[in-house]
Design brief:
Beta-Lactamase; 39% helix
C-alpha cells in the first residue's frame, strides 16, 4: 500500500482518465469573492474604478453607479489621501486603513485593505461596527502573555499546544489545531484544543486535502477566513479585468472566494466557519494553525491581526524549538563529524579514509547500510542492495539531487525498481561529494510496517456525472480510518540531513587542503625535476670533453708507443678505450633523456601503421641476420603525437623484443586495444608490443624502467646502456600516457602503453 492512499488516476473500461482536478483548479483567479466585504479594482495611478464586486450595496451604491467613476465619488479627500499614502509606502505594514463612507447622513466604517496587482490597485472593504482601530497598547496587552508562553515552551509540541489554547481563547472557535505538513505535502494534527466530542489529534490527511496551489497561496497570505461555508459567492463586474481582458488575479485578496471543492470538504466535516494561519519555516509552508466552528463566525480584522502576529512569532520560534530537539543526538553527530575530518585528513584518498569509518558512517544518520562510491568502485557497508542494484539506483538518483542531496523514506514510490529491495532499503539518503570525480555516499534504512490513523478514508471517491465525466470529490466521513503502511522507513530527521550536508562541506575542505598540499609538492617536484634535467644536461655536456680527451690520448699512446709497451700495457690501454666508449654511450643516453624532458612536443597527425612499418624496415636492415616474424593483427590508427618521439618509442620496444629472444623462431606482434569511445582523449587506445622472448621475472617488472638498469651482463644480448625503456616511459608520460609490462619467464613479454591523443581516422 502507498503511504498516502490517494489515487491520481483511475483506469476504467481500458481507458486512463485523469482525476487530478484538485491540483488543476485555478483557485487564484476564481472571479468571485466572499460576501462579507466589497472589492474595488482601480486603474493605477488615476484611481478610476474599472471593476467591482456585485455586492456594492454594502457601501450604499449600485455597481453601475461606481464603474468608470473616480474613487472620489465614493470616498472623501481624507480617505483618498490615506490610500495614496498607503500606496507610496509599505502598504503591507499599514493595512488595514480606517475608512468611512457617508450615506444619507449616516457614516459606515470599514477596514480597508489595499494592495497592488499591476496594472491595477485592489481595495477590499470589510464593514466594522465601531470607528477607529485597535491601538498598540490594546494589541500589546492581548498578545504579551501569549508571546511569553510561546517563547518559554521547552519543546516544539508544548509550544504548539500553548498556541492552540491561546488562539482558541482569543477567537472562540470550537476547535483549533496545529496541522503540520511533511515533505510530500501530507499533513497531521500535532496539537489540538476543542470542545467537540471527536478529537482530530494525531490523525493524518493526504496531500490532496490541501493541493499544491493552495499550499502556495498559504505562503503568500498569512491568514484566511471563511465566516460561513454556506455563502453564495459574489461575482465581479465585469467578469474579466477590462485593462487586461484576463481574469483578475486574487491571490493576495483576503476576500477571494475559496474552492467549491474545499467548501464541500468543510460541509462534510460539519464545519461552517474556518480560519487558518500560515506557519512559515525557511520560506516554506511548515504547517497551519487551523480553526473550525460549527456555526457562522466572523472574526474582526483586529482579532485576525493578533492571530496572524501569533503565527509569525511561532514561525520564528520554530527554528529555536527544532534546534533544541534531540540536542544530545546532535552533539553525538558533531562528534562523529570531527572523527570523519581527522580520519580523512590523514588518509591517502577519500575512499580509503571512508573505509576506516564504516561504523561511524552508519551511526552518522542511524542507518543500517551505506555505500561509498568513487568512480566505478563501490564499497558496501552493512545491509545494502547488491552492487548492480546500487549502480542502477545511483544512475537514477543523480538527476534527482537537489543541492547535492536526495532523501526519501519510501523509495519504491519514486523508483519502482526499489520494490525488490524495500526490506533493506526503503529509506534512502544520498550525498553527492564530487560530480566530476563521481564520489557519492548512499545510506539505507529498512522498511518498517506502520499503522497510520487517517481522518477518514484517504482514497477520494469518484463521482460519475450524467454526461459520463468524472471528478474526485471530498470524502464524506472523517471518522478514524486505519491503514497498514508498507514500503516506508523511519523518516530522516532534519538534524541528520543537516549533518550529511555539513559532512560534504567538511570533506570538500579536507580534499581542498590535500589538493593544496599536493599542488605544493608537485611544484617542488617539478622544480626539482627541472633542476635535475638542467644538471644532467650540463653535466653530460661538460663531461664529454675530458672523456673525449682520455679516449684520444689512449689511442695516441697505442699508436706512438705501441712498440715500447708490452702486451699487458696494450691490453690495458684497449680496456681504457672501451671504458671511455661505454662512458660516452652512457653520457649520450643521459643527455638524450634530459633533452626529452626539455624539448617541446611537436604534435601532428601521425599514421602509426606507416610509422611502425618504417621502424620494422630500419631494424631489419640493421639486423640482416635476424630472422623475425612481425605480426600486425589490424591496421594501427592515426594519432596526434610527436612523430620523432613515438618512432623512438616503438623502435626501443621492438628492438628489445628482437634482442632479448633466444628462440629459434622469433616473432613480434604490434597491435592495440581500442578504448570505450571514439574520442581518444576520453578513451585512449592501449598499444602493445608482444614477443615470445626470454621474459622477465615478476620482481623485476618495475625495475627495468629505471635508467641504466640492466638485468644481464654488459655484453649479453648485444649489450646496451639500459636507458631504452626509461626513454620509452618518458615519451609515453610526456604524451599524457603510461607504460607497463606483463611477462612470463621463458615465454615472452608484452609491453603496453597509451598515448593521450585524439584519433582522426
Amino acid at each position: 500500500m502507498r503511504l498516502y492512499g490517494e489515487f491520481e488516476k483511475l483506469r476504467m473500461s481500458d481507458e486512463t482518465i485523469d482525476l487530478t482536478n484538485c491540483d488543476r483548479e485555478p483557485i487564484d483567479i476564481p472571479g468571485l469573492i466572499k460576501p462579507h466585504g466589497v472589492l474595488l479594482v482601480l486603474q493605477d495611478p488615476t484611481l478610476e474604478i474599472v471593476q467591482v464586486s456585485s455586492n456594492t450595496q454594502l457601501v450604499g451604491r449600485q455597481p453601475e453607479e461606481l464603474l468608470g467613476k473616480p474613487l472620489s465619488d465614493l470616498l472623501d479627500a481624507k480617505e483618498i489621501n490615506l490610500i495614496q499614502q498607503c500606496l507610496a509606502e509599505d502598504f503591507e505594514s499599514i493595512n488595514p486603513l480606517n475608512l468611512s463612507i457617508k450615506r444619507l447622513n449616516k457614516s459606515m466604517y470599514f477596514d480597508g485593505i489595499v494592495h497592488r496587482m499591476p496594472p491595477v490597485i485592489i481595495i477590499e472593504l470589510e464593514q466594522k461596527k465601531t470607528k477607529g482601530k485597535t491601538g498598540f497598547f490594546d494589541f500589546y496587552q492581548q498578545v504579551r502573555g501569549t508571546i511569553t508562553r510561546i517563547q518559554k515552551a521547552p519543546t516544539l509540541l508544548e509550544m504548539c499546544q500553548i498556541v492552540v489554547k491561546e488562539v482558541r481563547r482569543i477567537t472562540g472557535f470550537d476547535r483549533v489545531m496545529v496541522y503540520r505538513f511533511d515533505q510530500e505535502g501530507a499533513g497531521s494534527v500535532i496539537a489540538e484544543d476543542t470542545n467537540q466530542e471527536t478529537p482530530y489529534l494525531d490523525l493524518h490527511y493526504p496531500p490532496s486535502d490541501i493541493p499544491k496551489q493552495a499550499r502556495q497561496l498559504y505562503t503568500l497570505n498569512w491568514l484566511r477566513l471563511i465566516p460561513d461555508a454556506n455563502y453564495q459567492p459574489v461575482p465581479l463586474i465585469p467578469e474579466n479585468n477590462p485593462l487586461t481582458n484576463q481574469p483578475l488575479d486574487l491571490s493576495q485578496s483576503v476576500l477571494r472566494s475559496v474552492s467549491p471543492i474545499h467548501l464541500e470538504y468543510l460541509k462534510n466535516m460539519g464545519v461552517v466557519a474556518s480560519m487558518s494561519i500560515s506557519l512559515i519555516h525557511d520560506q516554506k509552508l511548515w504547517g497551519l494553525i487551523a480553526c473550525h466552528h460549527s456555526s457562522p463566525k466572523y472574526v474582526p480584522y483586529n482579532i485576525r491581526t493578533i492571530c496572524e502576529f501569533i503565527g509569525q512569532v511561532m514561525s520564528v520560534e520554530l527554528v529555536n524549538k527544532e534546534a533544541s530537539e534531540d540536542s544530545e543526538y546532535k552533539m553525538q553527530l558533531q562528534l562523529l563529524q570531527t572523527q570523519f575530518v581527522e580520519a580523512l585528513s590523514q588518509a591517502e584518498n577519500l575512499l580509503s579514509g571512508m573505509v576506516q569509518l564504516k561504523s561511524q558512517l552508519l551511526n552518522l544518520v542511524n542507518a543500517t547500510g551505506a555505500v561509498i562510491c568513487s568512480g566505478d568502485q563501490c564499497i558496501l557497508v552493512g545491509e545494502t542492495p547488491s552492487e548492480e542494484e546500487v549502480h542502477a539506483l545511483l544512475h537514477w538518483v543523480k538527476p534527482h539531487l537537489e543541492q547535492g542531496l536526495f532523501e526519501t523514506r519510501s523509495l519504491s514510490k519514486h523508483y519502482p525498481a526499489g520494490e525488490s529491495f524495500k526490506a533493506i532499503a526503503s529509506g534512502v539518503l544520498a550525498l553527492e561529494i564530487s560530480r566530476v570525480h563521481h564520489n557519492y555516499i548512499l545510506w539505507f534504512r529498512p522498511e518498517v510496517l506502520q499503522t497510520v490513523n487517517w481522518g477518514g478514508n484517504p482514497n477520494k471517491p469518484v463521482e460519475v456525472f450524467s454526461d459520463g465525466s468524472l471528478r474526485m470529490s471530498p470524502r464524506k466521513s472523517f471518522e478514524l480510518w486505519q491503514e497498514t503502511v508498507q514500503g516506508s522507513a523511519l523518516p530522516w530527521k532534519p538534524c541528520e540531513i543537516q549533518a550529511v550536508a555539513e559532512l560534504r562541506s567538511l570533506i570538500v575542505g579536507v580534499v581542498l587542503r590535500q589538493a593544496d598540499k599536493l599542488a605544493s609538492m608537485n611544484f617542488e617536484l617539478q622544480r626539482s625535476n627541472e633542476e635535475l634535467d638542467s644538471f644532467a644536461y650540463v653535466a653530460s655536456h661538460d663531461l664529454k670533453e675530458p672523456l673525449r680527451g682520455i679516449h684520444n690520448y689512449a689511442n695516441f699512446l697505442m699508436e706512438d708507443y705501441g712498440e715500447v709497451l708490452n702486451e699487458d700495457g696494450i691490453g690495458k690501454l684497449q680496456t681504457l678505450v672501451r671504458l671511455t666508449q661505454r662512458m660516452e654511450d652512457l653520457i649520450n643516453s643521459l643527455l638524450h633523456f634530459s633533452r626529452l624532458g626539455r624539448a617541446e612536443l611537436m604534435r601532428q597527425p601521425v599514421n602509426l601503421d606507416e610509422l611502425v612499418q618504417q621502424v620494422i624496415m630500419t631494424l631489419t636492415i640493421a639486423r640482416p641476420h635476424s630472422e623475425v616474424e612481425f605480426r600486425i593483427p589490424q591496421p594501427l590508427p592515426m594519432v596526434q603525437c610527436d612523430r620523432a618521439q613515438v618512432n623512438e618509442l616503438f623502435s626501443n620496444l621492438i628492438s628489445n623484443a628482437i634482442k632479448y629472444n633466444d628462440k629459434a623462431h622469433k616473432w613480434v606482434e604490434i597491435g592495440f586495444v581500442a578504448g570505450n569511445g571514439k574520442n581518444f582523449y576520453l578513451h585512449p587506445p592501449t598499444f602493445y608490443v608482444r614477443d615470445n622472448g626470454i621474459g622477465i621475472a615478476q620482481e623485476y617488472l618495475e625495475r627495468i624502467f629505471q635508467i641504466f638498469r640492466r638485468l644481464h651482463g654488459r655484453d649479453e644480448f648485444g649489450g646496451g646502456t639500459g636507458a631504452g625503456l626509461t626513454i620509452a616511459r618518458k615519451i609515453a608520460e610526456r604524451h599524457g600516457g603510461r607504460i607497463w609490462v606483463e611477462s612470463t619467464p621463458t615465454e615472452g613479454s608484452t609491453f603496453y602503453f597509451t598515448l593521450w591523443g585524439e584519433a582522426t581516422a
